[in-house]
Model the fold of this input.
Amino acid sequence: MGQEITHRHFKKNDFEIFRNKIDSELQWVSNWFKQQDQNLSQNSSSQKSYQPLSIGFELESCFIDQNAQPACINDEFMQRLNDSSFLPQITKELAQFNIELNSSVFTVNRQILRDLEDELSRLWSECETIANDMGCSQVMIGSLPSLQEQHLKLDNMSQMTRYKALNEQVLRSRKGRAIELDIQGAETLKSVHQDVMLESTATSFQLHLQMPFSQSVRYYNAAIILSAPIVALTANSPFLFAKDLWCETRIPVFEQAVSVGGFDGAIFGPIKRVSFGSGYVKESLLECFQENNEHYPPLLPERFNTQVEDLAHLSLHNGTIWRWNRPLIAYNEDSEQNRDYHVRLEHRVMPAGPTIIDSIANTAFFLGAVTALANQYEIPELQLPFVQAKENFYRAAKHGLHGKTHWLSGKQLPMKALLMDYLLPMAKDGLYQLGVARQDITYYLGIIEQRIISGQNGAVWQRRYVKKHGKDMTALTRAYLIMQQSGQAVHEWIV
Done:
């Protein structure tokens, strides 16, 4: 969940104090990483205890009214949700027509996929019931087709100080220059905006994977490599403002909507705050937090009355740097207030939707594939240069299932062949390694297999609908909602 703050306006002194706080907390994190390395070194000669993975998700969704137009209701929605036990798991997103659903944290075990589906179904059903009582519906989709530029005004920003401050600080960092959207796809979209509301056009399904420290580098780099096939497989955002753009237009939209660089004097120049990253991790995830400190000025220099080990300022700063695979350090606290710190991967490349079952199938594919790839004997990042992994990612976002991609050891393959012949068996193997129930592996990965065979993900279905029925974005939104509510996986949708 986005961390709320209390201040909207900041002075020069606030930024200096905040940077000092980050320095202190980063030193604490550096010491923690060294201690973990020492523990691993001491245990290297003995059998290490098995540490299971844990996983959770964030789902951003849209509200639409009876005319399939964005409905700015999240404030009233949250008030109606007030008596629900689900309240701690729901928060407002940037626009008043968006909310975010957050799952519990689940240990990866035999029934993990069913547990995730049950949780998402319960959360979705609760929110849908309240939205229906308000005369609205809830939609999970990467970019809402009926959304128009007129909806992206500051009056429609959620009533949270964090978002207002973010808007102010992004524009300050840009020295007042407008945000320009320029996307070249099947068609071309150019647009100019005076605020960050463009970000609200992009909604996602994000996975949080808590990893054993000893495997965190392998998992993180494996997730980077898998980002291209994952975005091709799950693409669900072909249209924005009635323009047919990329298969996953959400990728360039988000990168341009918060188009703020890092320090101008940094050794590699100003690195963008929304990006694929600057390279693989070499020794530990600490490298990412160090890069955050060295290359990115604070955007929201809120001061917290906390201890260094709370990592409040470091976490807030990290939350304003949006790598498509973002590392996190956090802790769980038991009843005796003992803290269990851990590293986590936030995999941000998937769009929302098209359905609950598709979302869990996507989770199964990612969880299995990233586990198998991370545990390969031959280190995969040594077989695929980072520059090719990055090139793969943007090509996949643009062309989806119908492009080509570089793979390990210099191979170049059609995306569908990579998914079917290499990654689907890899995902099955990874889920077997994790002890997931075989019938669940067959069921959820069977959905992925049929999506690959049919070649129909959410983006393809939307384009097929428009080709048959014409470019009426309201009609497309209505048709999409009907198919979503049917519960059928997207490869079964008809146009």
Observations:
- Residues 12-42 form the longest helix (31 residues).
- The chain has one domain: 12-40+51-489.
- DSSP finds 14 helices and 16 strands in the chain.
- The chain has a mean pLDDT of 93.
